[in-house]
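Predict structure. Chain length: 102.
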Amino acid sequence: IMRKWPEEAWKDRPAKLTVLANAMLDSLALLGGAHIAAALDFLLAILFMEGEPGESIRPLNLTDEGQLHDLIWETLRRYPPATGVPRWITDDKGATWQHQIA
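Prediction complete.
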């Protein structure tokens, strides 16, 4: 998080960093179950499709960790398997927070 948004004063606002880290971890934790199978379906479809976007990624060396990493993240970016995104909301200027899935 600190590398992604270096312009933020994270050390001065540790609560903000904690809330954002929790939201990201919640997102990953809620992505289990059937979503994993859906993500793998998309990944395999791209690998074996004759048209785009599968055709433009070949040749692909799946033993190269960098290429495999990029393929996985790009597939998740292009075809997200989850339709809900968790977030924390407040209606009292931050005195209390509620977890919501939008």
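Summary: Residues 14 and 20 are 10 Å apart (CA to CA).
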